[in-house]
Specification:
With 417 residues, the protein is mainly α. It is 64% helix and 0% strand. The chain contains 18 helices and no strands.
């Protein structure tokens, strides 16, 4: 039986799979390069430009991510409204840059699909965090390391440094403690755990410490509740062995006489006054810093601040209460999707439990830290956080079990967390 000869493939035209792979690598690259916002912007821009080719031939089911996308749309629309209602619209116009970052929410499920690609990206983030942590620790050699010159790695600020490490640390801890696949006792993930956590401790960033402790406590409750008994002796050990400046910094967390803590109380009062006066659209993007002197308490330690050191209060004061509610709804949509899939796939014994719990706990740590620092307003930290928002939908996009029906059509398993 004869077959018609096939036309030779043009070697100048790359296969469709290669184009899709390039889009996935560009998207991953913009997250791995967040330590250089310029490089991250270039890679994200190239991801957007190549999207028509990298998603060609794919039929995406956006229904499973509809709640997240809906509230993201409300968030974006209110951002535009707050710019129009701003005290100084030309200055607030710079807030539109955030829409570029938010585009990752739309692209991620089509470019990072399935467990293998999600794990590959998370491993890349953890490896990058370990290298950046080593870079930060190496700054001890050039005079950094005390409270006045905190290590920050290649980032512009120590809080940005600690915010990125915090997210990666929770993804790593969840993998090691839930899946148990660390590559052996001396696998690279166990090795990466050391510089990441040492750098977090050495950054003196209390907001990251609080977020880490809260998330780790939840992880311990899920994995091995009896380990909570070790908290007291571990605390005593840290007090006895940790350097005195770090112990002093830890003890200052609840000290209301600490100037930094008192300054945050003053910012809280000023921010609530801003929200009370303009609850619908806020002062406008970039306006909180400019108008803070009008609202500050006379006893506030600082006359000017860059932001209110609270992600939630900053959103409400800058863009209005509806924007804050939209942000909370985005978090809720993500958490609901992760919990549903986590329970449906077998709970803690499921094959991807570490991914779902890692995403949940990293987002929890991020938001707890956000009570004391405006990490949502920090682009270098916001971008990995946005990946956490879409993590369950990236896993669903490559899952064969979801090919026939969306998540809401599938029953939950009754297994408890």
């Amino acid at each position: 039986m004869s077959t018609a000869p096939q036309a030779p493939q043009d070697p100048s035209v790359p296969p469709l799979s290669r184009i899709r792979r390039a889009g996935s690598w560009l998207f991953s690259g913009h997250l791995l390069a967040v330590f250089s916002i310029a490089a991250s912007n270039i890679l994200l821009g190239l991801t957007v430009l190549t999207l028509p080719w990298s998603l060609r031939g794919r039929r995406e089911d956006w229904s499973r991510a509809a709640p997240l996308l809906l509230w993201t749309g409300v968030y974006a629309l209110w951002l535009v409204g707050s710019i129009c209602a701003s005290f100084d619209p030309p200055t607030s116009l710079g807030g539109l840059r955030e829409l570029f970052t938010l585009s990752a929410l739309l692209m991620a499920p089509g470019l990072v699909r399935g467990e293998a690609e999600v794990r590959r990206l998370i491993d890349g983030l953890v490896a990058a965090a370990a290298l950046l942590a080593c870079a930060g620790l190496s700054q001890y050699l050039v005079g950094y390391g005390d409270i006045d010159r905190r290590i920050r790695g290649p980032f512009s600020h120590y809080m940005t440094f600690s915010g990125f490490l915090l997210i990666c640390d929770m993804l790593l801890l969840s993998h090691l403690l839930i899946s148990g696949r660390g590559g052996g006792r001396w696998g690279w993930r166990w090795v990466a755990l050391v510089p990441i956590n040492v750098a977090l401790l050495a950054s003196y960033t209390r907001s990251a410490w609080v977020g880490l402790v809260v998330a780790v406590t939840v992880l311990v409750l899920i994995r091995a509740p009896r380990l909570l008994l070790a908290y007291f002796p571990l605390g005593v050990l840290i007090v006895l062995l940790a350097p005195v400046p770090i112990v002093r910094r830890m003890l200052s967390i609840t000290d209301l006489q600490d100037p930094s803590n008192y300054d945050r109380i003053c910012m809280l009062e000023a921010g609530l006054t801003m929200v009370k006066e303009r609850p619908l659209f806020g002062l406008g993007p970039e306006m909180v810093e400019r108008r803070y002197p009008i609202y500050r308490s006379p006893s506030a330690p600082r006359f000017e601040v860059p932001h209110l050191h609270n992600s939630f209060l900053q959103l409400a004061a800058e863009r209005g209460v509806p924007t804050l509610l939209a942000y909370l709804a985005m978090n809720a949509a993500c958490l609901r999707a992760m919990l549903r899939r986590y329970r449906r796939e077998g709970g803690r014994r499921g094959p991807r439990a570490d991914l779902y719990l890692g995403g949940l706990l990293a987002l929890l740590a991020f938001n707890v830290a956000g009570l004391f620092e405006n990490n949502w307003g920090d682009t270098e930290v916001q971008r990995p956080a946005l990946f956490l928002f879409v993590l369950p939908f990236c896993l669903a996009a490559g899952s064969e079990e979801d090919a026939g029906e969306p998540d809401d059509m599938l029953p939950d398993r009754p297994e408890a967390v």
